[in-house]
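dude i think i finally got it to work??
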Amino acid sequence: MIIRVYPGAMVKGDGLNEDGEIELKQDATVSKLIAVVNVPLFLRPLLVVSVNGKTVKKNHVLHDGDTVSFLTPLAGG
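look at this
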């Protein structure tokens, strides 16, 4: 299945093609996606994930055509 990913500022997005998409096996979860795109370990507990505009938990099962956004904490000065 093909998932579109908006990784956010602090996530490199390993494995994404030039269109920001990645192919995953059926029944992959948000947790699997987080691991595959190599979200830094320190960031994983702080990460908020949105699928198709709705906030979801990391055990949420993804479906073909889903759009996933990683919302990372910002720091200011």
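Residues 2-71 form a domain with the Ubiquitin-like (UB roll) fold (CATH 3.10.20.30).
im so relieved honestly
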